[in-house]
């Protein structure tokens, strides 16, 4: 028997001695003699969609709206095997769409069960919201607090010129108070832990070390330390040039995170400028040498007209 690859709609228009004449919608016909190649068209049952509107009792509509009804309905949809279950646009009923009577009836039963306990769920939701509001109020009253210790030697770097670093940290949204004790204990109070952590990150004292080429150390320090002093004043950061552990020289920088970042940029720029100046000076020296070389080369004697004798 031939393998059937697909089924086509057709109409049996003639039957003669076990032979079938099939007429297809395109007007073509075919004579077949295998009964197994025929199937009744009513063998393919169409899908039926059942829509049901379930009214919400009037005394429960407000409670139903206030609970997480989307979650509740999604649970019913899953357990009943529905195609759709949602709150109607007028919020007075629930609409379900099912592919079978059994699913529709199961969903209706579960929705009715939800209506019976909706007021208790609404009470729990209201209690949860009240407690969340109280917790939020406590947070606003007491806030978040962060304490950390700084070497008293570096308090001036932390505070900044005329208190600029403290003012910058206090300007962070949610920060209410910053205390700086003479022994180096810093206390930050704010509405949230996020705000307090952001203020601490601005005020913390950090240390960074970057290498310096040996041939550039003297120029970076400058005459009587004037160059490195100017860099410290620009960055509001303490700098110290010394021998590194692995040989060579390094710049040790101490200050707030932002100022140390600024100091690193200033030192890197200064070192690049020193290197450029050194390259430029070498080029100038080479050009002067070329000029001296050209001036000492032998030149042909200048033309002098001969004098005649009279």
UniProtKB/TrEMBL annotation:
CDD domains: KH-I, KH_I_FMR1_FXR_rpt2, Tudor_Agenet_FMRP-like_rpt2
Keywords: RNA-binding
Gene3D superfamilies noted in UniProt: K Homology domain, type 1 (3.30.1370.10)
Matching InterPro entries: FMR1, KH_dom, KH_dom_type_1, KH_dom_type_1_sf
Coiled coil: none
A GO BP annotation: positive regulation of translation
GO CC annotations on file: cytoplasmic stress granule; nucleus
Annotated K Homology domain residues: 142-207, 208-272
Domain of life: Eukaryota
PANTHER family, alphabetized: FRAGILE X MENTAL RETARDATION SYNDROME-RELATED PROTEIN, FRAGILE X MESSENGER RIBONUCLEOPROTEIN 1 HOMOLOG
Name used for this protein in its record: K Homology domain-containing protein
């Amino acid at each position: 028997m031939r393998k059937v690859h697909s089924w086509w709609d057709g109409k049996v228009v003639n039957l003669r001695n076990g032979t079938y004449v099939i007429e297809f919608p395109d007007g073509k016909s075919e004579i077949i003699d295998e009964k197994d190649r025929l199937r009744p068209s009513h063998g393919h049952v169409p899908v039926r969609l059942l829509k049901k509107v379930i009214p919400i009792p009037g005394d429960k509509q407000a409670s139903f709206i206030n609970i997480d009804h989307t979650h509740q309905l999604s649970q019913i949809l899953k357990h009943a095997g529905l195609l759709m279950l949602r709150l109607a646009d007028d919020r007075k009923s629930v609409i379900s769409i099912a592919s079978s009577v059994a699913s529709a009836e199961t969903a209706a039963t579960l929705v009715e069960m939800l209506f019976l306990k909706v007021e208790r769920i609404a009470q729990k939701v209201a209690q949860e919201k009240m407690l969340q509001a109280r917790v939020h109020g406590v947070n606003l009253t007491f806030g978040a607090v962060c304490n950390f210790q700084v070497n008293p030697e570096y308090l001036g770097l932390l505070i900044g010129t005329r208190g600029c670093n403290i003012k910058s940290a206090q300007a962070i949204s949610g920060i209410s108070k910053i205390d700086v004790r003479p022994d180096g204990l810093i206390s930050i109070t704010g509405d949230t832990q996020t705000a307090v952590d952001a203020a601490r990150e601005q005020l913390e004292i950090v240390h960074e070390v970057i290498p310096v080429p040996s041939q550039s150390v003297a120029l970076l320090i400058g005459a009587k330390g004037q160059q490195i002093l100017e860099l410290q004043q620009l960055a509001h950061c303490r700098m110290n040039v010394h021998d590194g552990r692995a040989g060579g020289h390094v710049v040790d920088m101490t200050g707030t995170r932002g100022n140390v970042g600024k100091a690193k940029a200033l030192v890197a720029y200064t070192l690049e400028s020193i290197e450029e100046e050194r390259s430029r000076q070498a080029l100038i020296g080479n050009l002067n040498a070329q000029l001296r070389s050209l001036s000492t080369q032998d030149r042909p004697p200048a033309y002098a007209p001969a004098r005649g004798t009279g």
